[in-house]
Amino acid sequence: MKDHAMVLTTGIIMGIFLFLLLVSGCMSQQPGDNSIQPTPAVTTTPTVTQAMITSEPVVNNPSTGFVKHEGTNLKKLTLTVNSADRYKTLPGWSNQEGTAIAIINVSITNNLATDYRLSREYIPIRTERDNALEHGGDRTSPDIARNFLRFPLTIGPDETKTGSIVYIVNTGRRTNNLVLTDSDSVTISSVDLNQIFQYH
Predict the structure, then answer these.
(1) What pLDDT, on the 0 to 100 scale, is given for residue 54?
(2) Do the beta carbons of residue 83 and residue 193 sit within 8 Å?
(3) Domain boundaries in the chain?
(4) Is the distance from CB of 164 to CB of 103 less than 8 angstroms?
(5) What is the CATH number of domain 77-199?
(6) CA 169 → CA 24, 53, 77, 172, distances in Å?
(7) Cα 17 from Cα 23, distance rounded (Å)
(8) Is 179 in a helix, a strand, or coil?
(9) Beta bridge partners of 110
(10) d(CA 24, CA 99)
(11) CA distance readout (Å), 146 to 14, 134, 149, 151
(12) Which residue among 39, 80, 174, 196 is the one 20 to 30 A from 164 at the CA level?
């Protein structure tokens, strides 16, 4: 009985061995066979380029802890130029030849939580050759001064002050930038007045 089981087991093992040998022989290319074997299909993933990426609006997602901040202004002050006019002269003014009067209407917003004191030196018109400082306020007659912002200008927290600032500028300058700086002379904002000026 044991001999019979041993013969049966040996026969099964031999059968499996022959079967594997036969299958592997069929799968391999025979010597001298120059026929082209089929190449398995390769699936490639397209490379993602910037042009293929569409921007989706980012939304607040409490589950990830990400919050989108919109309209956050990290500057101390925000400067907006509403209008800019240049005059050869104006009634009540006696500006010298080679100069003009620039009246710039601005809105200045204090983004801090405390008052901000803005001196005239912090908002000049900068050219390629010189700086023109504010020339209104207490440097003119009361009749003229009441039309302009008076410096030093104190702006409360989250407050916006709008008004006109007057400058005596030298004519013939190619660069005319209204520059807002802080007390450390760091430029906060710069506006190219040449794009805005209306000449009278």
Answers:
(1) 32
(2) no
(3) 77-199
(4) yes
(5) 2.60.40.1240
(6) 95, 50, 24, 9
(7) 10
(8) strand
(9) 77
(10) 99
(11) 113, 14, 8, 12
(12) 174
| Token digits of residue 189 | 């904002």
ω into 46 cis (within 30 of 0):
no
pLDDT at 141: 77
CA distances from 186 to 80, 92, 112, 182, 190 (A): 18, 35, 16, 6, 11
From 180, 177, 179, 181, select the one nearest 194 (Cα to Cα). Answer: 177
Place 100 in a pLDDT band, splitting at 50, 70 and 90: very high
Pairing of strands 177-181, 187-192: antiparallel
> Model pTM?
0.62
Tokens at residue 68, please? 């989108």
Contacts of 187 (CB under 8 A, 6+ apart): 179, 180, 181
